[in-house]
C-alpha cells in the first residue's frame, strides 16, 4: 500500500498521493483560481495560500506556503501606493518588488485574452539604490472582455 503525503499548515489538512506536484499553467491559474477568487472572496484552493506581500519578506514566504519546495502560490490583494491613485505599492519593510520586462498576455482556447503576467524581482533597500536579489515573483491579473464585464465590487479585489 502506498503512503500519501499530508500537508499540514495549522488550519489546512490536505491528503495527497505520492509524487503530487502543483504546477498549473498560466491559463489554469487565471481561469481556475484567480477568476473564482475575484468573483467570490471566500473561495479557497488547497494549494494556494493568502498573504499580504507588503507585510511579508520574500524569505518568509516558504513558511507561509501551503505546499511547494521552490515555487509557491499565493492570493494577495493588490495594495495601492496612494488611496485615490492607481499606482501599486510593492514595498516591504526591507525592500521592494520591481517590475522587469514587459507584461505577457495569457490566452484561453483560441486566442481569447483572459489575463496578464508580470515578472517582478525583489531588491533590498530603497529605490533607486536597491540591491538586486535572486527572488522572482510572477504576478497575474485578469484582463480581456470577461474582466471588463465583472461587477464593480469584484474589480476592486484584483
TrEMBL record:
<dbReference type="GO" id="GO:0000976">
    <property type="term" value="F:transcription cis-regulatory region binding"/>
</dbReference>
<dbReference type="InterPro" id="IPR036093">
    <property type="entry name" value="NAC_dom_sf"/>
</dbReference>
<dbReference type="Pfam" id="PF02365">
    <property type="entry name" value="NAM"/>
</dbReference>
<feature type="domain" description="NAC">
    <location>
        <begin position="16"/>
        <end position="158"/>
    </location>
</feature>
<protein>
    <recommendedName>
        <fullName>NAC domain-containing protein</fullName>
    </recommendedName>
</protein>
<dbReference type="GO" id="GO:0006355">
    <property type="term" value="P:regulation of DNA-templated transcription"/>
</dbReference>
<keyword id="KW-0805">Transcription regulation</keyword>
<dbReference type="InterPro" id="IPR003441">
    <property type="entry name" value="NAC-dom"/>
</dbReference>
<keyword id="KW-0238">DNA-binding</keyword>
<dbReference type="GO" id="GO:0005634">
    <property type="term" value="C:nucleus"/>
</dbReference>
<keyword id="KW-0539">Nucleus</keyword>
<keyword id="KW-0804">Transcription</keyword>
Amino acid at each position: 500500500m502506498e503512503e500519501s503525503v499530508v500537508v499540514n499548515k495549522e488550519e489546512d489538512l490536505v491528503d495527497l498521493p505520492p509524487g503530487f506536484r502543483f504546477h498549473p499553467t498560466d491559463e489554469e491559474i487565471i481561469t481556475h483560481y484567480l477568476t473564482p477568487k475575484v468573483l467570490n472572496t471566500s473561495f479557497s484552493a488547497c494549494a494556494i495560500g493568502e498573504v499580504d506581500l507588503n507585510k511579508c519578506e520574500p524569505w518568509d514566504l516558504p513558511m507561509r506556503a501551503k505546499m511547494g519546495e521552490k515555487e509557491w502560490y499565493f492570493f494577495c490583494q493588490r495594495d495601492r501606493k496612494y488611496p485615490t491613485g492607481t499606482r501599486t505599492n510593492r514595498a516591504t519593510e526591507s525592500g521592494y518588488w520591481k517590475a522587469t520586462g514587459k507584461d505577457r498576455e495569457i490566452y484561453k482556447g483560441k486566442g481569447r485574452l483572459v489575463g496578464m503576467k508580470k515578472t517582478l524581482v525583489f531588491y533590498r533597500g530603497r529605490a533607486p539604490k536597491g540591491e538586486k536579489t535572486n527572488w522572482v515573483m510572477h504576478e497575474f491579473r485578469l484582463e480581456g472582455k470577461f474582466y471588463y464585464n465583472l461587477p464593480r465590487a469584484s474589480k476592486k479585489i484584483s
